Amino acid sequence: MKPFIPILVIIACSSSWLLAQNPAQEADHYPIVDIPIPGDIVLEVGGIEILPGKRIAVSSRRGDIYVVEGAYTDDPGDDKWTPWATGLHEVLGIAWKDGWLYATQRPEVTRMKDEDADWRADVFESVSSAWGINGDYHEYAFGSRHDKEGNIWVVLCLTGSGGASSDFRGWCVRVTPDGRMLPTTSGIRSPGGIGQNHLGDMFYCDNQGLWNGTSSIKPLPVGGFVGNPSGNKYYSLTDAIGDRPTDPKSGSRMAIELDKIPQLVPPAAMFPHGKLSNSPTGIACDTTGKFGPFTNQLFVGEQTMSTVLRVALEKVNGVYQGAAFPFRGKFGSGNVAVRLGPDGSMFVGGTDRGWGARGGKRFALERCHFNGTIPFEILEMKAQPDGFELIFTQPVDPKSAADIASYRMDAYTYIYQSGYGSPVVDKSNPSIKSATVSGDRKSVRLKVDGLVKGNIHELNLPGVKNTGGKSLLHPVGYYTLNEIPGK
Fold first, then answer.
1. Helices vs. strands in the chain: H and E counts, helices first
2. What global pTM score does this model have?
3. Residue 373 to residues 247, 273, 369: CA-CA distances in angstroms?
4. Are 254 and 310 members of one domain?
5. What is the pLDDT of residue 22?
6. 485 in any annotated domain
7. What local confidence, expressed as pLDDT, does residue 259 receive?
8. b/e map of 388-420 (b: 16 or more CB within 10 Å)?
């Protein structure tokens, strides 16, 4: 029976997600199309990038990169796969710029160029290999696309997910166009992906574990400390971003330690473990305006549950925070890479090797797209001094949306500790006192007693209907309240 244990665990952890989603209804708005993988390719997707001429590049954990033509269509017969490069080392990030394809391998950032127009790399150049690496299986390196200054940001996993045996493990570094490595942000544990929002600010996903009570999406400010002190000894190797932060107190809460450690940056959105996410990964921002009503929001891959989440962030008192929502389930494998094309196609790929995934396939490459039918969803959930403002994708039925019985709110958090993960703690039930529907019926103002700074506020909306009498496609949102706005 031992081989079946991981599958049973995944199913149990996914039960709350399954209650909050209906894949058949999701497909009414965002169908998924399988992109067939040739039988002789073991893909295990680690990165996806958009190339000129309606092509995409797909990298593999096994060290290969392929150029795929025909990925934008529903016709499996028009696909063409060309090997761009082979023999690389676990490529977990690719980026196209000025005719070069940049690959973040485990030991370095490499750039490659095709000089004879056959979509195969002819020139290979090492851009930077200035961080440390040893034989540990867990020393992953995830790379971003280029920022506005031409830098690639790389998040470096801890050694064995708990130590820092190689230089700058547990850090985010920037690789400049001229190949310099700039230590940037400390406090990383086990990243699963990295990406920018529409403003160019960088975020990454960190997985539950040491000093991470649950998984989350976190900003990466220059000079910031995002929570895990294991790699902070490498402040001794740089004077570029200030002094080493004071170590946090194990057993405390993030909100408490924020008042003690100036460099500490809280998660922008926590993902309740077992309810929404167990292993968040790649990040994509919809700047196309062609992926439905969610322009400028973030989409996050989920490896264990084979899903994609949606995150709507805002800044309050200069701090990123916001709500996470279920978005789309029923992908084929464990999602690692997520990338949006210029036409609004979302390319999603992944693997189950080493981690297990609910999807069932060893690896997969898929395209999810918006078919023009807008789902009834919470578009945004915004913090107010005395509650929240909810903005919807469709007008609400004023009777159901104004009834406080249509809503239920719970607040809770996780222990900020050196041990692995955390149970849910500090549970409370904020009271919804009123629900005021706007004149255009597209928003509702909730007045809430009992807001808790630093906690997740889980809002369930079982009774809210649209003007056609339909319930929300996903009647739940999880808002991380780092700051309460002033009146």
1. 5, 32
2. 0.95
3. 50, 31, 11
4. yes
5. 67
6. no
7. 97
8. bebbbbbbbbbebbeeeebbbbbbbbbbbbbee
CA distance 270 to 268: 7
> CA-to-CA distance for 234 and 105, rounded, in angstroms?
21
Per-residue burial over 19-57, b = 16 or more CB atoms within 10 Å of its CB, e = otherwise: ebbeeeebeebbebeebebeeebebbbbbbbbbeebbbb
The parts of the chain modelled with pLDDT lower than 50 are 1-19
Q: What residues does 101 pair with on adjacent strands?
A: 96, 112
Kindly state whether residues 288 and 423 are assigned to the same domain. no
Angle at alpha carbon of residue 275, lines to 388 and 413, rounded to 5°: 55
The verdict on residue 428 lying in a domain is yes
Please tell me the total count of domains within the chain: 2
First to last CA, the chain: 58
The answer to whether residue 486 is domain-embedded is no
Q: What pLDDT score does 7 carry?
A: 32
User: What is the Cα Rg of the chain in Å?
Assistant: 22
**Residue numbers of the domain that contains 399:** 378-480
- Could you tell me the sign of the dihedral formed by the alpha carbons of 47, 50, 53, 55, in that order? positive
Per residue in 135-158, pLDDT (tens digit) is 999 999 999 999 999 999 999 999
